[in-house]
Every structure is written in structure tokens, then in C-alpha cells.
């Protein structure tokens, strides 16, 4: 019986056999390796990936964390960091976060940074800059999502918030926004995407377009529908495109189709929400302690629907791609 060939030697023999069969020499392999262009740096590659992605909130969220990574590793090539390096970078960005009253140890920042890294390295794989076996982002543990600390807001606090919303520089707009989110539990993006043709006064329905390209017709009260129709008829787009908003930025054609508008006819932006909730938190200490926002209204409505009509109806309101 012949002696067993050691594993390392067997691998060498097998590799040599395959190379002979393919008529490829070791020198050919080394030359191919040398001709491979160097991997781009983080500062070079982030703009490439950003430009290749669809213009979504996910892309913008990733960019905010990519920029933090670029700040630390502008000239480092993306094939250089190890899984340990990436884990360290996640912890660095976590430690640099802004501490708010709702801080939960930077759990969300760490999760978002890891997701941004996975996306970046997934593109690097697709571009053949690295291969799957040498992708350090694949070895990052996925942080489980924490259970939300939000709870349903009491009626007394909601009444106080609505009173503040309806008593500002633009009470009509802010009160409509507040009621829209409280009645429909829609996300901020759903309200911003509303267009004049999305109103169906006959059946008291509005069409909501939200995350993931989802779309649905949502019932609203006759009172809110009346206010939305009045708002549509009174606040009409001004002038011809292109226009510039108060902050100097151009108003895109998509934004100019929005239903909800300021008094000057310009479409609202996320700045409208910042102003609304900043005023509410400034005047109501409880709202400030909770760091109340539009998502608190959504959570309140979902809880109310679940308690009164059951989980299945609440899921229809929740609408995150029901399966």
C-alpha cells in the first residue's frame, strides 16, 4: 500500500495538473496579478457608488456615514481594511455621535454604519475590485434592531401639540400636517410626496407613496379632505421652472408637483417639519423630554388602530411591504 501524500503536497500536485491542462504557467498568474489596477481609495470610490445608486433616502443615509468614514480614511484603499478595522471604525463613528435625550448607546449609529459599509463593499464586489472571499464587510456581525422606545401619546399631550401647531406663522399648513400624520399614520416622505391629483374628495381617500415604492389609497376624515382641497386651490405653484427656494437651492420638477406648500407657493421641505417640531418641543416640556417627532404621531395612531380594530388592520396602516 502506497504512503499517503501530505495534503499540502497533494494540493500543489492538483494545482499543477490544472494549470497544465489550461496551458497556464505560474508566471502568467503572477503577471495577471501585477496588471490588476490598484483599488480606489475611499475618497475616490464613495462618489462613484453614490452616483450609481437610485436617488432614495437610503442612498442619502448611507452617504452621511460614508462621509464620516472618508473623514478618517480618505487615502486608504478599500481593499486594505480588515474586518477588525471595520469593526473599529464602526465604534469610532459610534463614539463621535451627537448625544441626545433619546440616546440609546449609539446602537442605531452602529447599525447604520455597518449597513453603509456592506453596501459600499457589495458594490466593490460587483465592480470586481475585491472578491467575496476577501470582503471584510461580510464578516461584520449584523446588529439586531432594538425594540422601539416610542409609545402612544396621551390625548392631553396630543391636544397641546395640536394647539401649538395651529398657532404659528403658518397655522393652516402646520395644522394640516399634524392632522394628516395623526389620521393616516403616514411617514414624512408620504406627506412630502402628495400631489394634487392624489386627492379623491368623493370617497375621502388620499393616495400615499412611501418607502420601497409602496402606494396605497388611505381614508381620511371629510374635515381633513376639505382642508386639503382648500389648500390645493389656494396655494398654487408660482412662476415657471426653474425656481429657487428660500435657502437658495433650486426647486426640482418633482418637488414642484407637491401638494403641500408654503404661503409663497413654494413646495414644503423637511425644513417645515424641523420648524414645526422645534416649536412644539420648545413650548411643551414633555414633548422636549420625549424628543417628539412625526414618527411619534405615527406610532400613536398605529397603537390606537391595533387596540380598536386588530393587528391585521394595523398592519395595513403600518404598510412596510406586508407579506
From TrEMBL:
<dbReference type="GO" id="GO:0003677">
    <property type="term" value="F:DNA binding"/>
</dbReference>
<dbReference type="InterPro" id="IPR013762">
    <property type="entry name" value="Integrase-like_cat_sf"/>
</dbReference>
<keyword id="KW-0233">DNA recombination</keyword>
<dbReference type="InterPro" id="IPR010998">
    <property type="entry name" value="Integrase_recombinase_N"/>
</dbReference>
<keyword id="KW-0238">DNA-binding</keyword>
<dbReference type="GO" id="GO:0006310">
    <property type="term" value="P:DNA recombination"/>
</dbReference>
<dbReference type="GO" id="GO:0015074">
    <property type="term" value="P:DNA integration"/>
</dbReference>
<protein>
    <submittedName>
        <fullName>Integrase</fullName>
    </submittedName>
</protein>
<dbReference type="InterPro" id="IPR011010">
    <property type="entry name" value="DNA_brk_join_enz"/>
</dbReference>
